[in-house]
Batch of 2 targets.
Target 1
Amino acid sequence: MILRPAWMERAACRGVDTRAFYANGKHSREQVNAARKICADCPVRPQCAAYAIETGEYYGVWGGMSQQELRQRRRRFTSRAKDDQREAA
Ligand code: SF4
């Protein structure tokens, strides 16, 4: 049994085919935009984005962000964490 965070119970994508969030091929931009429309009204978008960044999710749309946006956000998050570690040392 896989334990899922409680916030996932309130996700707008609950019950939606997960393939809608993992775009590939030549229609990927349309797929990403379709997934983003679902995310736009999601009440747990911040939790979803934080989860994806903290757990290193590499693929898919999370928190309304494309894979590329997620990677950029993760790099900033990692960079900030390293800065914090340096300051604390
Ligand atoms: S933000 Fe998008 S991917 Fe994340 S839980 Fe909500 S609907 Fe699902």
Note: Residues 11-13, 21, 38-39, 42, 44-45, 48, 61-64 surround iron/sulfur cluster (CB under 6 Å).
Target 2
Amino acid sequence: MGGGIIRIPFGTMTITERSKQLVIEALDRGRVSSGRYVREFEKKFAELVGAREAVAVSTGTDADALALAVLYDLGASRGDEVIIPALSFVATGNAVLQAGFTPVFVDVERETLNIDPSKIEAAITPKTRAIMPVHLMGKPAEMDSIKAIAVRHKLLVIEDAAEAHGAVYKGKNAGTLCDMGAFSLYVAHIISTVEGGIITTDNESYAGVLRSLRSHGRACKCESCVLNTASAFCAKRFQFGENADIRFVFERVGFSSKMNELEAAVGLGNLDIYNEILNKRRENLYYLLDKFKAFSQYFMTLSKEPYEEIGPHALPMIIREGSGFTRSDLTAYLEKNGIDTRTLFNSIPTQCQGFAYLGHKMGDFPNAEYIGEQGIHIGVHQDIGRRECDYILDVIEKFISGHTLSKKQ
Ligand SMILES: Cc1ncc(COP(=O)(O)O)c(C=O)c1O
């Protein structure tokens, strides 16, 4: 390929004209805290994913934490255990702690980047309450095996679907595969509200608890009260006495995690072009995955099974042992040629300092640690197309041939 450097940013965000118009309308109306746009966004997101309910919150981390905090309504105690993959964005581990539980880590598979189902049962104890698989890089976790284990041990399964917008497993969308699904709506994710998160579920009583949790644990689960405008029509108001100020009755330990109207306005405009964004990103990802077969001697990446669609979040690449180059060689070359890179996260228990107090040591999670040392990911977003994908492939090919040449000399 001739020509100069092409800039390939890691992420992008498309703000539509409708988003801008809705933001202005909300500002003009003077109602910017959670209201009708948030409700509309929740309804549309639930429809899109195919879940009965969706509850919007401030971040994807809160979506994870609030979904986990529902466990208290089901009899869990503080300090109980939640099983999560050792490799994820650190938010998965943080959310477990923020919800008041203890994270129990299970190593991942190098090929899928996801929790290794064959290692889950050994991590279950009498204190285990839930499994939270992560669909890392949009690759669906092995849900049939995970669900079978959960049923055997009477555990809830909550999907961390932060990166899995558009992912499909055996005909069902990520976020509808188990008890609850938690999505991030942060910039660079396929549907974004700038900052934001949303929990999907078919269980209406979980949704009620989530609405209470996002608003400090308020007693009333009816929408208007949760939105901080105690309504005269609220049945619960009367349950607590005619004069009770329902806004200050708290049933559970809660969070302050409501989405606001401006964020929902951005999200509503984004939903209008969801299919366009998804298709473009999917085309980019699948094209790159296919072409990457030529580099399989040097890199591992994802492969798509016939029963799934990978949510096109980003392209992961893990340098194989014996490749002859280091990750910093690779990232320096890609960055020099305009391609943004991100590392492929860390082993949370052994490569994230905040978790050192749990007492794990390097070597406990070999696959997560290997990916933490040798993995990167790059963008496949809607602002790039075939030309940029070919450019990425060309740069990688040149990098590899440069290295094999220098080794021969
Ligand atoms: C796997 C995973 N879980 C949770 C989160 C947290 O989302 P947020 O950044 O919106 O809090 C992220 C963020 O991208 C993520 O990648």
Note: The longest strand covers residues 314-319.
